[in-house]
Hints:
Blueprint: E1 10-15, E2 21-28, E3 33-38, E4 59-64, H1 88-101, E5 107-112, H2 114-125, E6 130-136, H3 143-152, H4 158-165, H5 177-185, H6 190-207, H7 223-238, E7 260-265, H8 273-281, E8 286-291, H9 300-313
Parallel strand pairs: 3-4, 3-5, 5-6, 6-7, 7-8
Antiparallel strand pairs: 1-2, 2-4
Helix pairs in contact: 1-2, 4-6, 5-6, 5-7, 6-7
Amino acid sequence: MRYPVTEPFDEGRLEVTGGHEIYWERVGNPRGKPAVVLHGGPGSGTAAWWRRYFDPDRYCVTLFDQRGCGRSRPLASDPDIDLSTITTQLLIDDIEALRKLHGVDSWLVFGGSWGSTLGLAYAVDHPARVSELVLWAVVTTTRHEVDWLTWSVGEIYPEAFAELRALVPDLERGDNLPAAYNRLLMSDDPAERDRAARAWCAWEERIATLSGPPRADPRYADPAFRLGFARLVTHFFGEHAFLPPDGITGRLDRINDIPAVFVRGRLDIASPLGAAWRLARQLPLAELHVVEEEAHGGADLTDQLLVDATNRFARLRSRYDSR
Length: 323
């Protein structure tokens, strides 16, 4: 269903604002259709499996580690990290800097989970630079969706949610739980930071699937990774993606002419399906595929729908620069 993993033909680091250095790589055909991959998290970093959604003969794909994670520097786990230099708008600026670096006129934007929010925010900011959108586990990271991720899903898993709330016992329903956790994660006390990182990552594991026991994510065994990941997630979620309530939905008219494919699992409880459904209904050229038996991470049918979309869009050459 997916293509074999191919090695980058080019890679490097780009100095951007705020003292950050972004790791990037390019795979596929240097003269192929440009695409950019926006990983999830926030803070997961890119990985080789993202390359497999693209025909390496027909695409030139840019992948990069967003600020604070992966092979970019500094890391969000660093003791003196300044999270104020990591915002949605600055990530959008980084995408534009990479586009200009690689001489791309416009490109297909591919992202999942948090990457779908970032992709939509980028598209409404720079619609002329987006040829198509292919997004899965679609979210927009509004306050409603962040409250769903915490307080609402807490009603499905009250035992696990009680463990999450144990570190912030003074919060009342509807309070900004990710922001409260971010304060713990930025504490001067290493033990307090690690307790908060472990608790948040345990919640991430719990909400990744609707039924059955949580699946352990081996990445969370690394203290530096779980701290950096938890810091970035709670930083962005606590600020509702640094966007006003209508920061995406209020500007969808700017991307009315952009073909889009959205894929969501019916069993994805990490965010409300209604948000993706309403989004697709407002975009004339968008199609939403709801996969009945799959959850947040997707599986075989999600993969097939994503590959089908990139294969179909590979034939559309009118909106991109093939230099």
